[in-house]
Description:
Strand content: under 5%
CATH class: Mainly Alpha
Distance between the termini: 47 Å
Radius of gyration: 20 Å
Mean pLDDT: 89
CATH topology: Chorismate Mutase Domain, subunit A
CATH architecture: Up-down Bundle
Structural class: mainly alpha
Number of domains: 1
Number of strands: 0
Amino acid sequence: MSTPDDTGAETPLADEEIQALREEIDRLDAEILAAIKRRSEVSRIIGRTRMASGGTRLVHSREMKVLERFSELGREGHTLAMLLLRLGRGPLGR
Length: 94
């Protein structure tokens, strides 16, 4: 991997590497966004189906498992899991 020159400026090769990595991040962001949208849709379908069959919209034990799964990311993982759960609930579950 390239290093900065004596002035601290990036070399052209480093700029190309950075650009390639940024493009990878952009692709990953698009995949993450698509996955979040699909996850929210599936979660809403589950909630509607449960309610239609006389069940509750939310299952606390299931939500706790989601929080536990994301805990490997630390405090930010908990925050991320809470946001995903909120997105999946839709407007009535907030």
